[in-house]
Design brief:
The complex is a heterodimer of chains A (about 290) and B (about 500). Chain A is mainly α and about 290 residues long. Chain A has 14 helices and no strands. The longest helix of chain A has about 35 residues. The mean pLDDT of chain A is about 90. In chain B, helix 4 links the parallel strand 1 and strand 2. The chains are: A mainly alpha (about 290), B alpha+beta (about 500).
Chain lengths: ~290, ~500
Amino acid sequence: MNFKHKYFFLFPGLFVLIGILIFPIIFVVRLSLSGWNSYNPGLDYIGLENYVRLFTDDPRFWESFFRLSFLSVTTVILQYVIGFALAHMVWKDIKFKRFFRVLFLVPMMTTPVIMTVIWRTFFHESLGPVNDLLSIFGVAPKWLTDPVIAKFTVIIVEVWQWTPFMFLLLLAGLLSLPKEPFLAAAIDGASPVRKFIYVTFPLMAPISIGAIIIRLIEASKIMDTVYVLTSGGPGTSTETSSFYIFIKGLREFQMGYAASMSFTYLIIMIISLTIIAKVLTKILLKE
Amino acid sequence: MKTCLTAIISSLMIFSPMAYADKWSDQFPHIKATGDIPGDCSYEKMSKKNYKGKTLKINTHAIPVMGEPTALHAEQFEKLTGAKVEVTHTPAGDLYSKAMVPFQAGQAPYDIVFGFSNFINDWKRYLAPVPKKYMNSPEMKDVTKSHMGVSSWDGTMYQYPVDGDRHYLKYRKDVIDNPEMQKKYKADTGKDLKVPTTWKEYGEMAKYFNGWDWDGDGEKEYGSAEVMKKDDLMFAAFFSRSVAYAKNPRTPGGFFFDLETMKPNINNPGFVEALTDWVEATKYVPPGGTNFGLGDEIGSFGGGQTLFSFSWDDAFIAAMQDDSPIKNKVGAAPLPGANKVWNRVSNSWENQYNQAPYIVWGWAVGVAKKSKVKNMAFDYLCFFSNGANHQADLAIGRFGVNPFKNSDFDPNIYINSMGWDPEIANSYTKTLLDMEKSNNRVFPLRVPGVFEFTSAVATGTSKALAGQLSPQEALDEVAKEWEAIVSRVGKKAVQKAYSVGVKMEDNKL
């Protein structure tokens, strides 16, 4: 076989790569250099005007980015802690282990938008059951209308929805751990806590890093929960980057400007997630 | 002669107190109250059309508001004409983009697109004008002047009228007109309990009736239900509160902008006063009321939770439906006014009473210019709003179909077909009719990139409601954003488009 023929077999994969990955990114970059909007549709060329506007005259984008950072880091930490605890629980030989394993996955299998509508009903401050129950204790938190509490409401819904994903990854990791270190620890008479700190947790570090990064990537795209639950309000207190980009792009139809925000956001995410992965590797793997 | 005969037959059918039985109402129970009403797009006429083998694609709002009647009339249209009608339901916030994306790409995945009347400037180049055949129909001649204006641009109609919208005040008549409550209110506040004519009175009464069980149903009631949820039509609620302070009949030339300079008026003291009132209103809405969208507002007032509400008809109609706990216990009145109005020319307050109706934008629908089944599409829309369907739709609050025909202002329709108390029906139709007659109306902003302007208002006002900014700071931010938008879109383009709306407001069109 001619050596060059083997490149022929690369073409299908290459076409797919160009079609679904390279072209959209190139198009977004080109779109970001245009003034495409509702009254001026088309790829005209306006240079870096959109980027200048973004960096010099749009504090709302940066506020939404920092809010997103807070929400995604908080939700992922909580998901990791709860997911690890649940995975650790059903990793052991407990009664109804299979039932719990399936039960813990249920939230992830539901449709996020539908579930958020249900959560919104739960948290409805005058008609919802949550405040109805809490009124027994004389409290009625403003779940959706207080700028601070609304952030935690978003976190609660996100944690409920996506902890199972973390649970799944960590359970798979726990099930794949070698048995020998645990046997050695048992022979040495290590307590369950010491066994967790010195054996389980270090062995789970590589999987933990992967799971955290995957969830951080997903959490940083948080959109549907915010859209349904609060529409970014009250005020702009739960507005995240993706929701803000959605408003500018698909509500206000500032396509060119939204593209410049998307591209900037992509670059920031690539850089920050790379740094986070390095830091986590350094801390957890002690490399 | 034919028109005369049609009108007589229609009147007889409309005003008949009994359910009307004919062959069409037997098949289509939706129109059982009137039966088929003769007209160019009646059930009888549509049944003679043959659209077998043709498909009509419609993008409409989510169920129920406008989405439910669209689907219902689509099903009826299919049965009558043999056409296949595919209906897609889309959330309100995405109606604009769902049509705009393919429009701008030169495609027409939908033959009919539902949206709001203020989209007209952005959409008109992609929509087919309503053909003369329909323009000359008796049904179209019956549409009010205001709504002909709202559906048209510079004399050409692009949006087929299916709905008429305006904001007005709704109140609990059983409380406001109750002598015992009046006595109690007088004793506690020293003021008269009456239908509020100013926003200050509205606020005082709403605050007084907030958080206690004033109708004896064992539940707490509240002052007011309003659309305050960010990006969910809240800007329209803000404009409703602003017109009293900022629409001065003695300073023509623009409510939203000064038409000559295109400087935004949005942060002048009139608007700031309205926003200050609105921030105060967060204290007398039900728990969670600052996150109420239109659906919540309808449910809240329609379900008897609040004393007042103001916005579209839907909450009032919901309250007057047979299944409502407060049927015939509510009243309609013009939006409250103010005892002072800002004069933007002299830069001072005029201490005199002012009231201005807000002919708010509402549901609108157009046929895509690139549609291959335009005739069928217009027939569908004509059928949607034919006499029988329109009468039946008006009676169902969740449908979101409100009066837009002159004949809709006859109180007998509501008394005979819907069982309304005559006094309420009279106050309702008088309220709507008076708005049509007013010379101090405000029409929706209809300029290129309208969504950028309204989105800026929603963001700014929601920041004020959430306490992130003071009313003045919030509106200064909106004004700055509006100036930036005008500069991006082009001052001349916005000015030209805005001048059409100003002509309507200044009663020159």
